[in-house]
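Office hours follow-up: a student asked to see two folded examples consecutively, so here they are.
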Amino acid sequence: MTSLAALVVLGVAAATLPACAPNDPAPTFEAGSSASPAAPTSGQGEAPEARDGLGGPGTSASPKPAEKVLAAGNPNGRASVPAEARAVDTSKPTRTVGTGTPASCTSAAVVKAVAAGGVITFNCGPAPVTIKMTATAKVRNANGPKVVLDGGGTVTLSGQGQRRILYMNTCDEAQGFTTSHCQNQDHPQLTVQNLTFADGNSTGDKAEGGGGGAIFVRGGRFKVVNSRFVRNRCDRTGPDLGGAAIRVLSQHENKPVYVVGSTFGGGSCSNGGALSSIGVSWVVLNSVLSHNEAIGSGANPAKSGTPGGGSGGAIYCDGNEFTVRIAGTIIENNKANEGGGAVFFVSNNRTGTMKIENSTLRRNPSGKFETRGFPGIFFLGAQNPTVTASKLS
C-alpha cells in the first residue's frame, strides 16, 4: 500500500527541518544487560538519558546473578494499563522449553513449542541465557486461541543477525486457514512478555511486503509486555517496508496492538526503526524507544530514481482508519533520513488520530520533513495530534 504522504510533505503543506540537536552517538547494545533505563525526573516520563544499553552515556551495575531479571520500559511512566494489555498469567503453562539447563533450551525446542501453541515458559536454569535461533518460530493458526511466550526475565531469543525470530500470519496457508476471513479473526492471540529479542533480521524476506526483523504479525491479536528489542534489522530500502523490531498488518476489528513497559533500541530498517504497520492501531504505554533509524531514501511513494523509504525513525504507521496513543513513554535519539524522526503517521483518508500523553519526545531529527510545531513527527490525519502534559523538542 502506498500513501500520498510524500506528495504532500515535499510541498508547501508540510513542515520544516528539525530545530532540535542532532542525535547523540549511538551506543553499543548489549542483549544480556538487565539494568533499567535511568529514572525520569518528572511525571512526564522524562529521563536524563535512557540507559539499559539503549540510550545515551552512563553505566549501571549488574545485579547479582540470583537477582537478574529483565527490566524494560520507562520505570517512571504513569500511564494506566488496561486489563487486556497486562501480562498473561503463566503460572500453569501448557508447555515448557528446557529441562533446567541452558543446553536444553534450543532453537528447535522453541520452534516446536510455538507451533504447538498455548502458554509457553522456559526452564533454562537460574542464569540469563541466549537461545540462538537457527529457524524462525512460526505460530500454527489452529493451535490457539492463545499463544504466550514468557521468558521469565532471563531469556534472550537471538536471530543471530540472520533471520526473523517469530512469525504469525492468519492469512498464510502454510500455517493453516481457520476461517474464511483470515484478515479479521480474533485468534490466535499472541503475547510476548518478559523476553529479549536480539539481532533479528528479515532482510530479503519480502512476503507480505517484508519487514518485521524480530516479529512479524498479520491478523488475530498481538501484545508485548515487559520485553526488550535490540539490534534488529529489516531491508534497508522500500517505500512501505518497515519495522526493524515489529511489523503488524491487520488486527481483529482494528483493536490495538498494545506495547507495555518495553524497550526498543538499535533497530534499523527502511522505515520504522522499531515499529511499523499498515492499517493498525497502537497503544504504547510506559515504554522507551531510542537510537532507532529509518535508513531508506526517497520517501513514499518513492521519488523517481530512488528506492523509497526513510520515514519513521521509531514508529511508522500508514493506512486509513487507525489510531496511535503514546503515554508515559520516552522516544529519543531516533532519526529518519526522510520524515518523522520519531513518528511517521499517514492516514490516507484523513480519519486517523494520534494522542501523546505524559511523554517525552526529544532529539529525533527528521532529515527532510516533519509537521510544523511537532518536532520529530510527520502527521497527516483527522486533526493535529493531541499533546497532553508532554514535551516535544
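And the second, which I mentioned at the end of office hours:
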Amino acid sequence: MVVELSRREARRIAVRAQLLDAHRPADLYDVVSRLTFLQYDQTAAVAPSADLVAWSRLGSGYRMSELAEGLADRTYVELRGMIRPMEDIPLFRADMAAHAAPDSQFGHPGAQHWVDANDRFRLDILEILDVDGPVPQTSIPDTAQVPWGSSGWNNNRNVSMMLECLIVRGEVAVADRDGRERLFDLARRVYPDEMVPGPEAATIRAERLLRSLGIVRKSEAGEPAVIEGVRGRWKVDPAFLSGGFEGRTALLSPLDRLIFDRKRMADLFEYDYNLEMYKPAAQRRWGYYALPILSGDRLIGKLDATTDRKQGVLRVDAIHFDQPAPPAVEADVRHEIQDLARWLRVGLDLPA
C-alpha cells in the first residue's frame, strides 16, 4: 500500500521528525540521539552549526559547554565530522572492520591501495598513538613512502589523509579536542568493544535515519509514499502518520538537516535558499551566513546576522521575508532573534 500525502502533511512530518515543532526535546542527549548526529563545522559567523542546531531545538536554556562536556566525558564521539552518541558506535564497527580487512572491497579503492603502499607509515602512527595518545595531528611526523596525490586541497597532506583512512578502518578515533584541534588516539581506547553485525547494523541505521527525517526519497526502511504535486516515490516513517501538529518559529543553521538536502527542501517547502558565504559580497541575496526562518510548517525567509564577539553584539543586517509576514509572525521572528542574542550572551543590534 502506498501512503498518499499532501505537501503540507509531508512538511509537517519533516518538521516533527527534526524536533522543530512546538514539543521541544528534553535535553541535548535527546537531540543528538533522535537526530542521530550533529554535523561538526568550524564556521561560527553566528555560532558553531552544531550548537545552533541544538539551540533551535532546546532554546536558550541550552549551554554551548554541554556539547564540549559530552565529548570530553565520551557521552558523544566525533566520527568523520559527525558528533554521535557513543552508544551508537557499535552500529559502525562492522563496516570499519570490513574496510580494514585484507583485500577489502569496501570504500575508495585508491585510498585502500594508498594505505597498503604506506603500511610502515600506518604502523608508525599507531605506535605513536599507543605510546603518547591522545595527540594532535601536528605531533605526528610524515613518514609516508608514497605521497597522497590529488589535484585538490589535500594534495600531499599525508598525515591528515592517513588519519582519516585509519578512522574509516576503525584503528584510530578522535578522542577529544583542544579548542578546534582534534586529538587522536587508538580506537580501542575510545570506542566500546561491542559490534552489531553488518546487516543488522545497516537496518537499524536506516530505520533511525528515516526516523530523524520523517520522509525521504530513498530508504531501506519505511512505507512507500507519494506527495501530491511532487514527482517520484518517497519513503515515510509510519510513526509520523498519526498525531496532530503544533508548530512554532525557529531560526535554523544553514547546515540544519531540515534544509541540508536542497532538492528535498525545494520539493517539500518550495523554498529558495543557498549558503552564500562562498559568493562575492555583491552576488549575495540574503547574506554571508543567512539563517533560514521556519514558521510552523513553512520556511518563510532568511535572517542576515553575524555575531561581533569583539563588540559583544549580535548584529542583524536584514530580515528577508519571502512574502510579507503578518504582524504576529514578524513578532515571533523578532522574539526568536532576541532569544538567540540572550543565548549567545551578547547585546542585540536589531533594526526597528
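Two things to take away from it. The chain is about 35% helix and 20% strand. The two ends are 52 Å apart (CA to CA).
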